[in-house]
Every structure is written in C-alpha cells, then in structure tokens.
Design goal:
Rossmann fold, five-stranded parallel beta sheet, 5 helices, 5 strands
Length: 138
C-alpha cells in the first residue's frame, strides 16, 4: 500500500471560511474525508500547521519513508528558503500544489522557493489540485 501525506501550510485551516471566491466554500476536512474514501487503496495522511518550523519538522519526519508528499506551503512557498531546502534534502518525491492559480495573482506569488526541488507543480485547479498530485504518485 502506498503511503502519501498531504502537508498544508498557513491559513489553509480556514478553507471554507477564508476568501471563498478564491479558495472555495468546502472545508479541507470534508475534502480530505472524501479523498480517503476515494483512494482507500492508499494510506493517506494529513498534516497542517501555520508554523514554518513545524512544517519543516514534518517534512523531515516523513521524507524518507513515504511514497509521496503533496505540499501546499501556502504563503511560505514564496518566502521560505528553509522549506525549499528541506524538500531538497528528502528522498520522498514532493508535488507542490496550490488551490488558486498563483500566476494570475500578485507578482510575489510567481516565485516558489520549493518548486525547483519538486517532482512537479500543480496550480489553479481548486481542491482538485490535491487529487491530481495524488494521482501522479499512483
């Protein structure tokens, strides 16, 4: 059984409440429950933190024995050299995901410190971005 973890960064705990015109009206918990049912042949795990160091610690914890990491580092994507370096040091492949199309938003969101160290980037497909990333590992 493949082991895949979704790691979400800051403010993604507010999905369904925060800026629904950009991020939709579903909570991530409801979406995650549906993903677990749909991909029952996968050991799917989930972690969310608003704290950069906790995200790095989780990447270190899972980055050598999972089959895939789906990472939405949110705003840290564009600011965290530390998360980019953590991803670079892992054996487990990482797919960077974003709910919105970051390239149609503010210019600072066009730069990722994580993308150069990933298997790929999926952006702009809403919550389906996560599902596309999971499929890339199967």
């Amino acid at each position: 059984m493949k082991k895949i973890i979704i790691i979400n960064g800051p403010n993604l705990n507010l999905l369904g409440k925060r800026e629904p015109t950009i991020y939709g009206s579903s909570s991530f918990e409801d979406f995650y429950k549906a993903l677990k049912e749909k991909y029952s042949e996968v050991e799917l795990d989930y972690f969310q933190s608003n704290i950069e160091g906790e995200l790095i610690n989780k990447l270190h914890e899972v980055g050598f024995d999972f089959d895939g990491i789906v990472l939405n580092a949110a705003a840290y994507t564009h600011t965290s050299v530390g998360i980019g370096d953590a991803v670079k040091g892992l054996e487990t492949p990482v797919v960077e995901v974003h709910i919105s199309n970051v390239h149609s938003r503010e210019e600072f969101r066009h730069v990722s410190f994580i993308a150069p160290n990933t298997k790929g980037v999926i952006t702009g497909f809403g919550l389906q971005s996560y599902e596309l990333a999971i499929q890339s590992f199967l």
